[in-house]
């Protein structure tokens, strides 16, 4: 069986995909999946489901949701449920099943290794596979509670690392013009993520578009001043100065600084 949470929450078996459809039960499954192998307490699940305003019979309702979830996940010929009652709550044990987020982590780690080894074409292939697994917004309307929201925030950071590595690998392969559009989209989507501005400046400069590269710096400075009251980070400032002074080696330098 395979669990997918990077797209619409669903479960895949030999017969295809299955969807729950009932939001409360989806929240319970999402909470157990993002803490696979660890106990999630009854109190934590109640908070995830109802925040600070649980109903009078919240514990009884939770037991019903878990029972329905066990039935949903049960497959013919399989005896033991993957959801185990363990004080003070429940734990979901994969027992050889797959979880797509684990594959995502493995792909990003592999892409990082390949990039460091200078195997950029292979890194692009691996990181594109990781990127294709992701569908915004991850876990959609299930991320209101502290367990799922914290998980998604951490996952967002790993996704940004994946996208940075992907852009860097493309730059190392000399695909400067081809990556400009992608980096502009990343800047628009993540206006406070300064690394995307820096990579965009490099891509433009190496494409012979020096003035545009410098304009990216001024845009970044305006955003960081307005939103954070700060000057751009050191890496951005150094990239701007290198472009202004036509620093020797800027064209050929590695994208990582």
Topology:
Layout (H helix, E strand, L loop, with lengths): L1 E3 L5 E4 L2 E3 L4 H12 L5 E2 H9 L7 H16 L9 E4 L2 E4 L5 E2 H17 L3 H13 L13 H27 L3 H14 L4 H13 L3 H19 L5 H11 L13
Parallel strand pairs: 1-7
Antiparallel strand pairs: 1-2, 2-3, 4-6, 5-6
Helix pairs in contact: 1-3, 4-5, 4-6, 5-6, 6-8, 7-8, 8-9, 8-10, 9-10
Detailed description of the structure:
The structure is a single chain. With 257 residues, the chain is α+β, with helices and mostly antiparallel strands. Among the domains are: 2-96, Arc Repressor Mutant, subunit A (Orthogonal Bundle); 176-257, Alpha Horseshoe (Serine Threonine Protein Phosphatase 5, Tetratricopeptide repeat), CATH 1.25.40.10. 59% of the residues lie in helices and 9% in strands. It contains 10 helices and 7 strands. It has helices at residues 23-34, 42-50, 58-73, 100-116, 120-132, 146-172, 176-189, 194-206, 210-228, 234-244, and strands spanning 2-4, 10-13, 16-18, 40-41, 83-86, 89-92, 98-99. The strands form 2 sheets. Strands 3-2-1-7 form a 4-stranded mixed β-sheet. It has a 3-stranded antiparallel β-sheet with strand order 4-6-5. Strand 1 (2-4) and strand 2 (10-13) form a beta hairpin. It is elongated. Residues 252-257 have low confidence and may be disordered.
List keywords for this structure.
Serine Threonine Protein Phosphatase 5, Tetratricopeptide repeat, single chain, three-stranded antiparallel β-sheet, 257 residues, elongated, 10 helices, Arc Repressor Mutant, subunit A, four-stranded mixed β-sheet, alpha+beta, 7 strands, 59% helix, disordered C terminus
């Amino acid at each position: 069986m395979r669990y997918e949470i990077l797209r619409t929450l669903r479960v895949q078996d030999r017969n295809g995909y299955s969807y729950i459809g009932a939001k409360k039960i989806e929240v319970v499954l999402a909470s157990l999946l993002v803490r696979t192998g660890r106990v999630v307490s009854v109190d934590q699940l109640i908070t995830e489901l109802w925040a600070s305003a649980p109903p009078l019979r919240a514990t009884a309702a939770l037991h019903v949701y878990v029972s329905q979830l066990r039935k949903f996940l049960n497959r013919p010929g399989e005896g033991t449920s993957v959801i185990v009652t363990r004080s003070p709550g429940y734990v979901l044990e994969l027992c050889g099943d797959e979880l797509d987020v684990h594959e995502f982590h493995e792909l990003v780690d592999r892409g990082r290794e390949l990039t460091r080894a200078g195997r950029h074409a292979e890194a692009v292939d691996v990181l594109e596979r990781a990127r294709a697994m992701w569908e915004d917004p991850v876990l959609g309307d299930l991320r209101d509670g502290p367990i799922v929201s914290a998980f998604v925030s951490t996952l967002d950071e790993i996704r940004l690392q994946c996208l940075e590595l992907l852009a860097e690998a493309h730059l190392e392969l000399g695909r400067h013009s081809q990556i400009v559009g992608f980096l502009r989209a990343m800047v628009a989507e993540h206006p406070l993520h300064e690394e995307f501005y820096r990579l965009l400046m490099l891509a433009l400069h190496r494409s012979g578009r020096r003035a545009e590269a410098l304009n990216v710096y001024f845009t970044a400075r305006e955003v960081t001043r307005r939103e954070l009251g700060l000057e751009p980070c050191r890496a951005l400032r150094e990239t701007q100065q290198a472009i202004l002074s036509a620093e020797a080696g800027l064209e050929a330098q590695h994208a990582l600084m």
